[in-house]
Design goal:
Blueprint: H1 4-18, E1 28-29, E2 35-38, E3 41-45, H2 58-71, H3 79-83, H4 86-99, E4 103-107, H5 110-121, E5 126-131, H6 136-145, E6 148-152, H7 157-166, E7 171-177, H8 189-198, E8 202-206, H9 223-227, E9 231-236, E10 246-250, H10 252-261, H11 263-266, H12 273-287, H13 290-306, E11 314-315, E12 322-328, H14 330-342, E13 345-346, E14 349-350, E15 360-365, H15 372-384
Parallel strand pairs: 3-13, 5-6, 5-7, 7-8, 8-9
Antiparallel strand pairs: 1-2, 2-3, 4-10, 9-10, 11-12, 12-15, 14-15
Helix pairs in contact: 2-12, 4-12, 5-6, 13-15
Length: about 375
């Protein structure tokens, strides 16, 4: 007997290949870094979010080794059973102090954190307002929350205000990336804060790509947002922090509510305690990381200056380590990525549905662990292929 559902899956996979939308996992050997071995080929990588080069930093590795001897490998239980280790607690306290919020909560992943916060704060009597370019995890959480879900054009505060003015929901929550992961631009934090104050709403900011990089490493929060009880802040810890997980910082009652009500927090095993020890060391490195951030800023300036006048693609405006080079068609972006790989330069092609149709791009991400020569090689190759 034929299996119709499996046949449809195979047809769908064939369509992805035809449309240049098929994704494949790459096999990494060794540690993460600016120079890596992928599928057996040594390349300069411009596709990692390890912005400060901490993923293989010796200080973090030493912290991991020391903690393994102290607390072993696994947490063994959920946080609300026996899995909440003192190292988790110490990191939460240190993170809250570093960010400038009164309390914080550690999650195993950023995706889980977004699901947890949004579904705990709003339900069927609420309404959620999201930027069109928000990360997929925010969109998924909004859909799972049961709340009314309204989306506004990217950074279009006039449309957002109109939606807020029309809302009759009991609870309102605006959610936004702080640094948008595919464009590299920033949310207008203080303007969003003004709206939540005028329309009695929460503001949830996902700072996956700003934490560790912006504002002496403290991320993209403004002073006003840091002081506001309405603002809930998320930082993912597998990017600039170089480790794993995510932390949410907010007013203490918000954190306590998440502990009591956030299902992705309650019903999962705690992350290994030794990772929290690594994160504590990561915070120390970020706080003392002015030289890393200066080197990263110099790479951004070098790349942007070097690609001025490039005919094949448009470099979007961004002061962050995310430097998107818009190519247009999926096939053209994929081919350019392959051409660079042949030269030992790894830059991913980002296609629909991650970005809108006709805006496929190379997403160049820079790290403090790159050298000026690494950046120069990429600039030279892009001009040669122009």
């Amino acid at each position: 007997m034929s299996f119709a559902a499996l046949t449809r899956l195979r047809q769908g996979l064939a369509a992805l290949r035809t449309d240049h939308l098929e994704r494949r996992r790459l096999l990494l050997d060794g540690a993460q870094g600016a120079h890596v071995t992928i599928n057996g080929q040594h390349v300069i990588s411009f596709c990692s979010n390890d912005y400060l080069g901490l993923a293989a930093d010796p200080a973090l590795i030493r912290a991991a080794h020391a903690a393994l001897d102290q607390c072993g490998v696994g947490a063994g239980a959920a946080h609300l059973i026996t899995g909440h280790h003192r190292l988790h607690h110490d990191f939460e306290s240190a993170f809250a102090g570093f960010i400038g919020k009164p309390a914080a909560l550690l999650f195993s992943t950023g995706y889980m954190a977004n699901l947890a916060v949004i579904t705990a704060l709003v339900g069927r009597h609420g309404e959620l307002f999201a930027d069109r370019l928000d990360h997929a995890s925010l969109v998924d959480a909004a859909q799972l929350s049961g709340a009314r879900f309204s989306r506004y054009r990217h950074n279009d505060l006039a449309q957002l205000e109109s939606q807020l003015a029309d809302s009759t929901a009991q609870d309102r929550l605006i959610v936004s990336d702080l640094v948008f992961s595919m464009d590299g631009d920033l949310a207008p934090v203080d303007a969003l804060l003004d709206l939540v104050e005028r329309y009695d709403a929460w503001l949830y900011l996902d700072d996956a790509h700003g934490f560790g990089v912006l504002n002496q490493g403290r991320g993209g929060l403004t002073d006003a947002a840091r002081a506001s009880d309405r603002v809930i802040y998320l930082a993912t810890l597998g990017k600039a922090a170089g480790v794993s997980g995510a932390a949410v910082a907010a007013q203490p009652d918000v954190i306590e509510w998440l502990i009591q009500k956030a299902r992705p927090y309650i019903y999962t095993t705690a992350s290994p305690p030794f990772l929290a020890a690594c994160l504590l060391e990561s915070l120390r490195q970020i706080e003392a990381g002015a030289a890393r951030r200066a080197r990263l800023s110099a790479h951004v300036a070098q790349l942007r200056q070097g690609l001025a006048g490039l005919k094949r693609g448009v470099l979007m405006p961004s002061d962050t380590p995310i430097q998107p080079l818009v190519i247009g068609a999926n096939a053209d972006a994929v081919q350019l990525s392959k051409d660079l790989l042949q030269r030992g330069l790894m830059v991913p092609a980002i296609r629909t549905p991650t970005v809108p149709v006709g805006t496929a791009r190379l997403r160049i991400t820079l790290s403090a662990s790159h050298s000026a020569d690494d950046v120069a090689q990429l600039v030279e190759a892009l001009h040669a292929l122009d």
